[in-house]
Automatic annotation (TrEMBL):
It comes from Paenibacillus planticolens. Its main location: other. Transmembrane segments: none annotated. This is ABC transporter substrate-binding protein. It comes from the Bacteria. It holds the Pfam family Peripla_BP_2.
Amino acid sequence: MKKLFVLFILTAVFLSACGSKETTPVAAGSGTVTYQSEDGPVQVPANPQRVVVLTRFLTGNVMLLGVPLVGVDEMSKANPNFQEKLKNVEVVTDESIEKIIELKPDLIIGLSDINNIDKFKKIAPTVTYTYGKVDYLKQQLEIGKLLNKEKEAQAWVDDFTARTKKAGEEIKAKIGANATISVIETFNKQLYVYGDNFGRGTEILYQAFGLPMPEKVKEMTKKEGYFALSTEVLKDYLGDYIIFSKNADEDNSFQNTETYKNIPAVKNGHVYEADAKAFYFNDPLSMEYQLAFFMKNLLGK
């Protein structure tokens, strides 16, 4: 019966879109607003109450603004900072068409390269973003516009900008304006170092704080935003301070090598380990966590 019901709903939503290039769903009792998306204007609920976010990169952006979520990706659900708030939220992917129909979303948010976007548009208004097209602050403002909470988004941007500016000045005064810092992480058994806009606190360290990265890191992460490291070249990429976004499930055996142990930052006790599962992203909630981590470890606050 359940499969028949889902099939019926699928047929209904697809047929309702026939003969019309663009659907205009109406949120119950709240009307719609026009959002200027990357792909043109989209009619979205003025007060969305059942949002599905198909990308881990934007879950925290929506959560910060207090908009109810009914579906998120698996990594968002596993984020220690999100677990309590998302405990009753379903895990979905861009292949979960039937499941998402059952969730009855009034808005779907994803990245521009998601699968099945045409199907999603027939279920609910769907808005996508190109990852990295705008910086983390502008991204939050865009989500604020989408959710009709632009003032709240702007308030966070202004406050976070002021707090990171102050913290950056204090950190430079303490560790030295020229002290370099590197962000590393083991992912799928490979050690990586990250550039200035790849989550893991890099936006805060390099953009907001204005701390320098080692020249080699700057050079090799310019194109992709990250660079794979071998143990032999570690000394060229690890700065005076190291942030290690550490996943305990990964192979972190490089820490046991003499090469790593002899790196100045390691010998000086300037390595700070963070929980990778809470540290991956550059959404506002993750960045609040990262900021608190940096202030505790680099300033002792």
